Amino acid sequence: MDGIETTAVLDRQPLISNIQRYSVQDGPGIRTTFFLKGCPLRCPWCHNPETQNPEREINYDPEKCTGCGTCVQVCPSGAARLEGAVSVLDRELCTRCGRCVDACPTGAREWVGQAMTIAEIVQEAKGDEMFFLSSDGGVTIGGGEPLFFPRFTLELARRFKDEMLHVAVDTAAFCQWAYLDELRHYADLFLIDLKTMDGDKYRDVIRGSLAVVQQNLERLAAAGATIRVRIPVIPGFNDSEADFDAFAAYLGTLKGRIAGVDVLPFHAYAGKKYKLLGRWEGYQYQETESLQPEDVNGLARRLKQAGFSPANSGLTIGGLTG
User: What structural domains and CATH numbers belong to the chain?
Assistant: First the structure.
């Protein structure tokens, strides 16, 4: 099935790359989003590049470096060295032992990815319950790709439901149907990314299968799951008139079976993340400016014609109704 059997790590407990509180764009109300670290896809514009690699990584911010040389003294592999007034991190030599992270007095070096048990995650979420209750919010399991770790995600969602929390799962739906079929019993909402309607681009650029995504999306809809489709609009990748026509034509066939569509214009904020991770040179969108809501008017217009209305939040632009 298009190599889909390779896109899950069944017995691994994922690291958590970030816990985002007071989120208002990852489902209804005020939410706490847990970002799982690891993803089988490789979207070149990824806004959360720190969630791609399932292993712990080191963020290095030279702007915070005072050139004290402490990292050089403790590094056993020679990956840290001083050049002028600041330290340099040679990632080819770095073994990620973490000694420089522990020793850095200014926080210029930080771990990305922390180990948390399901019980610890649930406890964190419960601490925000008053905000969920006052806003009809809840928790969102994101990433990365939650279905890259299906057993962990299923158990986490089940435990959240045991605590009577509203559960949303943010996924690309590039996984075996069996995982989604079981997860739908615990997830109140699926946020499904639809990145392109071009199967070749999905395979060659994103390294996944559009056919698998569509099949899973349609099966979830037929099973009665609550779904919002999210379209990240990326300059030069899926922002042509033909792309907009294709999105609207396909989603029009799902009208009445999905709760709505969220159009997410590209933003350039992730550039700093690529620099911190040492991946700036390979980032294809270095010079690409953030899109504005008016830049996706063509797609919004077509989606309205397909029956998705801003009036009842059936259509949002950039997380805002419009």
Answer: 4-54+114-321 (3.20.20.70), 58-110 (3.30.70.20)
